[in-house]
Amino acid sequence: xxxxxDHLEAGxxxxxxxxxxxSVSREQAVAxxxxxxxxxxxxxxxxx
Length: 48
Prior knowledge:
Layout: H1 2-9, H2 14-20, H3 26-47
């Protein structure tokens, strides 16, 4: 889902992304964001 992160980085809202990718559900996009957050937090904790 690199496109999701690219869109958010460019300043697009989640709704704007979803409008452009109707095959992606809000639940799928939120799950991807939650997974990325968990991975980032785990990496930060391991680096301490």
